[in-house]
Amino acid sequence: MARPPARRNVDFFCAVIIVGLLAGVAGLATTTVLRFVEHLTYHYTFGTLLTGITGSSPVRRALGPMVGGALAGLGWWALRRGAAVPPLADTIARRERIPRLAWGGDALLQVLLVGSGASLGREGAPRQFAAALADWGTAWLRRLTARDRQILLACAAGAGLGAVYAVPVAGALFSARIMLTSWRPRALGAALITSSLAVAVCSAATHDEPILDWPNANVSFELTGQALILAPVALAVGLAFTRLMAAARPAKQLRTWVLVPALGGAGLVMGICSHWWPELPGNGRSILTVGLNSGLTLSAALAILALKPLLTALFLRAGGAGGMLTPSLATGAAAGSALVLAMNTVAGTHLHGPTVSLAGAAGVLAVTQGSPIWAAIFVWELARPPLWLFFLFLVTATGAHALKVVATGRGPTRSG
């Protein structure tokens, strides 16, 4: 393979720096707007979304998500009537023209929907917005090839993900392994630089702190062997989640006025459910938080395990758009919490709840995304527990993914 010309390499390096900085701006902007919408919806000033939900009135819990869903539906009705909003991964893979304005508008509506309580991931918005900004910011570099631009757009998407969750390594590997399915040095190096820069820029909002607080607790190395118990559970939950989302997603993007009542109704259902399970609204961070704090009962864990994917499917069916990473992650955490609570109660074991909860999250994420190494790194970076627990998460993720390959014959998949 011929070495790229020196001038093209200079252009590519300049583009990498530009993409990293713009992806950080995208992450910072979407995080700021998301927090504003959350605080406005549930009328709170300090603390997490879960704090705001538990402190809000019953009427606000029900009507806030309904109004937010209806407004997002109105926005999508107006946007989709005038422009198509193609999927991010497919557009980059096929090297098609980037719809900058459509992706930017769609990202803003995703933030509105998720911020008002929808059960969808917030990572979809910064990925799209970062890719749109990257395409705009590097358009003047004429010596870049179509492959160079494909790498840069994939790096922008991964860097946007890394920025909002403060996970630089996971953001880089998302670009290289899931978006590009490549270990080539050019792609991997660009992904690491862009993700690191984006996380640094977005640290103005995230303060470069882990999204989840790992509890100070002694955990045993014996858990590594027990992590394999989770693999079949993670496989079953991950496959069920994937198939449910595939069935719920409309064959064609909804573009009619029905979006308004459909998303408003989905928001109302979410609001009603949050009266009993305030962990349900949002992308799933609340579920991960209570799982780490051992704050779930067995009945609550089972209810969340069933309701989280069902509510996510409801918003998809209603025409909403958003990420699937954190809803699947939260579903896996609920499965791990349910398993550890059942075993500790029925069998009299003493499994460590937070560890098993995160291991379940890693296993389900490995099944839905087809990349166990990335899943383990992403989960570890979210909480940054003791380093050796990364290997426990990797055992669960690898075991679940291996069972998936045996059961379905399918390897890696590309995220939407």
UniProtKB/TrEMBL annotation:
Classification via SUPFAM superfamilies: Clc chloride channel
Record-annotated membrane-spanning stretches: 12-37, 62-79, 151-175, 227-246, 258-277, 297-316, 328-347, 359-380, 387-407
InterPro entries documented for this protein: Cl-channel_core, ClC, ClC-type_chloride_channel
Annotated keywords: Chloride, Chloride channel, Ion channel, Ion transport, Membrane, Transmembrane, Transmembrane helix, Transport
Cell compartment(s), UniProt: Membrane
A Gene Ontology cellular-component term: chloride channel complex
GO molecular function, one term: chloride channel activity
Topological category with respect to the lipid bilayer: Multi-pass membrane protein
Domain of life the protein comes from: Bacteria
Protein name per Swiss-Prot or TrEMBL: Chloride ion channel protein
Source organism of the structure: Mycobacterium scrofulaceum
